[in-house]
Amino acid sequence: MIIRDITAPNPGAFTLSGTRTYLLGESAVIDPGPAIDSHIEAVRNAMPRLTTILITHRHGDHAPAAVPLKRMTGARIVAPRGVFDDTLVDQRVSGGDTIPIEDESLEVIATPGHTAEHVCFLTSAGDLFTGDTVLGEGTTAIFPPDGSMRDYIASLRLLLAHNPKRILPAHGPTRDDAATLIEQYIAHRLERERQVFDALAGGATSAASMRQRIYPDLDPRLHGAAEIQIAAHLIKLVEDGRVIERGDSYAIQSAPQ
Ligand SMILES: [Zn+2]
Fold first, then answer.
1. How many C-beta atoms lie closer than 10 Å to residue 3's C-beta?
2. 59 C-alpha vs ligand 1 centroid, how far in Å?
């Protein structure tokens, strides 16, 4: 199956060069993108036989263009529960489902973490459409409580177990080193978790004081986002039973007697 893509004109700190809408053969798209007229028009022109619109997760830079595209073409919307309401979605998918697209069969992999409902799509050739779970460069943002670091790391391990060959992310370049990239993603998060734990052990008890230790030279505009990532790690450490939360501060769980 021929895979093409069109990048939406929505570049930014989180979207990198913009959302990449993938065109599968002549009939399906993955993540139609933001509802920007020129982007919708470009997708429509490139896909005169559009019948299926697949969505990885509900965020505004991924899903909204599905609505006008469905209205204009009659294409069906295929998405996990949590994306739009049931009146708009023609087929709900969850992990383990397969979606026939022309001569291909896409496997749905549930990858909660970036958002609770996030799914990825895998072709039989090992092309993995990762949405925001793995990006072509940099890291993805985990914003609790919808985002979960614990789920996210488990989802990365699940993706690795499917032996993908290429990563086709919603943001950033396509990567031919799928397994290496996912392993780096897991290692990066575990390293950050270790830094958070070490900052706690060193006396930092709040996300702000940990941020000063872990990211000493960070651009002040990114302080808030960095503290949320630290909070996501702290929540995971609490869930893992290694840290306890006391009001606004955190402490290392002492070893059982
Ligand atoms: Zn997103």
1. 17
2. 5
